Amino acid sequence: MATELKKKYGLLTAICMVVGIVVGSGVFFKAEAILNHTGGDLKLGILAWIIGGAIMIVCAYAFAIMATKYEKVNGVVDYADAMIGEKYGYVIGWFLSTIYYPTLTMALAWLSARYTLVVIYGSEADITGGLCFALTAFYLIGSFALNSLSPILSGKFQVSTTFIKLVPLVLMAIVGTIYGLTKGHTIANFTTVVNEIPTSTAIFKAVCATCFAYEGWIIATSINAEIKDAKKNLPKALIIGAFVIVAIYVFYYVGLAGAIPNAEMMANGQAGAKNAFAAVFGNVMGTGIFVFVIISCLGTLNGLMLGCSRGIYSLASRGRGPAPHVFSIVDKHTNMPTNSSVMGLLLCGAWLLFFYCSQLSGISEKLGMFAFDPTELPIVTIYPFYIPIFFKMMKIKELKGFQRFVSPVLAIIGSVVMVVAAFQAHGKMIPGYLIIFAVVMAIGLGFMKKKEI
């Protein structure tokens, strides 16, 4: 057995990790939600995508600056250690390992299952039924197996699915725009509002919805100990990947507006994106292209599982967390933190069970305010954790001008905007979420004391 991870990923894999984790799920999942939040106002929807993307870019740039200075085994935890202290780094690491990674990974497995059933059953697909959640569990186990048994194959799968997932996005961006201009859908959707909603409310709720579509880039920092020349390549991957993502999302959203009327997209729920592809490319070809959407979701799931599997390891390698002598072990054959991976899968399963119960009629009513949306609130929670780190950046004397002051200030503003957006969108559910959050974090404090590995 070993306790160190080898340098095995190059710049291309790192860029694909950033793009691959982020692109390929939320943009399909949240397009309809953003339209509903804005009342079908396409211009406000595009503005929300741009604001959400700008927040991602300024935060990614700030972390890219830190990536040139620090390199251990879990980027954001490393930065918290260096900027605030080891205990703060542990608190963030515990949150990432037990809430952030598992909820995101679970959500992506569910999205993959959801779209699989949409291809089979169309708008009649039961996305909260037993079959959907059974398929979700299968995708979680499959992704875990791929990452645990063959991390090299997992990396190649990440690269290949990154390019595959760009196919439906680029096709819709180009063909959908041309189709929409020809049919008049694009102009009609830009000039028509389905439901009038106050602008400020619409923007904040829509920006909160974009957080799921844009989030995940920070997970790429969890493999910085495995990236060749990480201090040079990780910042490049974060910045290049962030700009690529924003451009893809905005152009896809415009192309989607050319496919079907906004009112139809808003009314069709989970089948909205599939209907859009069918309208532009025909039923057979549209369905075929939509299969690429499923593949893209699985690629995103793979990247998230990669980060999820290293969560507890990142704590154990520092001598903290539960049984660090167990979870710090790296398999000598696969160079994977196998024990940490198993714990990550179990946590995903626990959150999947919670999500399933929150969707069941009868149980969800009993859960009340605890039946929160796991695709947004856990993601937004990471932004308050960032703020003290960004403030500390301004005290680093080696940094000059823009990097020392402007970059962290912009990142702080972006983080605050995201928190305000969450309160606008999920005000009633936030107390219940915070109670669960507090319980999980309190458990983590019991494992904070550092131990010898």
Describe this structure in words.
The structure is a single chain. The chain has 453 residues and is mainly α. It has a single domain (11-445), classed as Amino acid/polyamine transporter I, CATH 1.20.1740. The protein contains 20 helices and no strands. The chain has helices spanning 11-22, 26-37, 42-67, 75-83, 86-121, 130-149, 151-183, 185-191, 199-214, 230-257, 262-267, 272-281, 283-308, 311-316, 324-327, 338-359, 363-367, 377-393, 401-426, 430-445. Helix 3 packs antiparallel against helix 10. It is globular and about 65 Å long. The model has no long low-confidence stretch (mean pLDDT 86).
Task: Give the helix proportion (percent range).
Answer: over 70%
Tell me the CATH superfamily.
Answer: Amino acid/polyamine transporter I
User: Number of DSSP helices?
Assistant: 20
**For the report, how would you describe the main beta sheet?**
none
Structure class: mainly alpha
Low-confidence stretches: none
Mean pLDDT: 86
The CA-CA distance between the termini, in Å, is: 13 Å
Q: Write down the secondary-structure element order.
A: HHHHHHHHHHHHHHHHHHHH
Number of strands: 0
The second-level CATH architecture is Up-down Bundle
CATH class label: Mainly Alpha
What can be said about this structure in brief?
The chain has 20 helices and no strands.
SSE topology:
Blueprint: H1 11-22, H2 26-37, H3 42-67, H4 75-83, H5 86-121, H6 130-149, H7 151-183, H8 185-191, H9 199-214, H10 230-257, H11 262-267, H12 272-281, H13 283-308, H14 311-316, H15 324-327, H16 338-359, H17 363-367, H18 377-393, H19 401-426, H20 430-445
